[in-house]
User: What shape does this take?
Amino acid sequence: MKRVLEVALFLTLAWPAWTQQQRPAITGIAFVRVFTGHDAASADFYSKTLGFSSSKAGQLARYPVNDSQWIEVTPLRSLEPGPRLAAVGFTTRDAKGMQRYLEAHGVHLFESLHKGRFSVRDPEGNLIYFVQQTQGPAVAGEVPATATSRRIIHAGFIVKDVDLENEFYRDLLGFRPYWHGGRTEEKTDWMSFQVPDGSDWLEYMLNIPSLPTQRQYGVQDHFSLGVEHMSDAVAALARNHCEGADCAKTQLGRDGKVQLNLYDPDLTRVEFMEFQPAGKPCCSEFTAKHPTEHEDR
Assistant: This one.
């Protein structure tokens, strides 16, 4: 018996430290970054049409959505067709611990931890940041009264290999199924996974042609601004002199939530979405709570 206990103690002490390490909490989306090849038109869209104020960090413009979320817009190097969603950042309560956790599991760093954030590439090459949660505002600048939303609730991008991405987001990071559905009942075109410690989510956009047009890239690689009532967003867009039929074109999505879609000058889709479903979702039920405008992180 003594020998068995000695062996057990040895194995416990000798077991690699990372196997005992807990994954730090991931509480929501910190930011989305988009490319632009049309600086002036992009600035008009995000500041005047969407109503956010900007601050500059070199060539990168930041638009605070609330104290802990923001939109980044950065210059595009080439106007060739391709993804315009440059990066998605997630908030964590322990960025240093998250970096150690991912490195211990064989994930290579793209950028090491610096000023509270680091980045990696997911299995399909998408740039993903982890941002240290702060006590005060995480981004400088005020959110003006003209803002059309005060909450980023999800980001989505094209996924080719669901199993491969699931190994990263679901198995390693702990993202949880939220909803899935498709254009028809027989096919799954969208899969949504909430962060493990919050209600923001990541959306897989499936069944996309191997060589998408720029319009197709823009529709699929998108981000979503949450609103309590879509009528308030429509009214805010009208006050901001949004032009075109899309500014008031609402629809009931397949997930049962009211939506409104706008496109920035580089065709990246900005999807306004109500927090709560207004109708019954197709294809699957929701499996977790819905986001709200104000949520503790």
